[in-house]
User: What shape does this take?
Amino acid sequence: MEHVDGTVDPGGVVLYALSTCVWCKKTRALLEELGVTYDYEYVDLASPARQSEIEGEVMARTGRASYPTICTPTDCVVGYRPDEIRLLLGL
Amino acid sequence: MAEREAQEVEALRERLEREARAGGYHLNPDVEFTSALVEGLLTNQARYGYPSCPCRRAAGERAEDVDIICPCDYRDADLDEYGACYCALYVSRDVVDGKKEAGAIPERRPAKREDRPQFRGEAAPAGSGIKVWRCRVCGYLCAREEAPEVCPICKASRDRFEAFAWPPG
Ligand code: SF4
Assistant: This one.
């Protein structure tokens, strides 16, 4: 898990992404534009065991395992949906 | 990106664009966006031995990932419904013309492994229940939900296709 320090910390923001995916890149760019403090993990670069673990967790929380998925402790947004992401983060 | 990699990306992007055009498809005209996806395809080719979809997690075994080798099994249905494939590497004419925008679309690939095309053990013969379309211009036949946007053989548009066979029932 990598950590990015921003100027606003909504608390416990985690982004699950793929290093090869352009929509994931856009999501990171949006978070950085908003100045959000967050953690992220590139699922495709993780160990096979960790990949299954993330897949299970994302599946349990969203009913599917697709990326980008951005979560707070209470809710998640699947896909690069700027308006919903802003809403999720209260920004 | 190293110069050699940049050249590789550009060469593959140009090839995909040529092939898309020849088959009646369109690559996303946003070259920067498309190049980033093409780079992802090259990364996956090197990593797994096949160009797995850059926007999906690959299992790393061909038999598992065969439905998401680019172009994936889901491209044409997503082009028909949303005007873009899941990654938006391929887009419809309307998106190229700026009449429609490509954005985030829901994942069409079934979440459950056993529901994916390569694992669906069908009792009925493969392909049954699918419509067959005929190009009135050149007679090209294809079995799919919708006629293609452009006939890959003679380039006639979708409105020049007719229903050739409807699935029974
Ligand atoms: S979604 Fe698009 S880029 Fe991804 S595999 Fe399918 S056709 Fe290729």
User: Anything to note?
Assistant: Chain B has two domains: 3-120, 123-169.
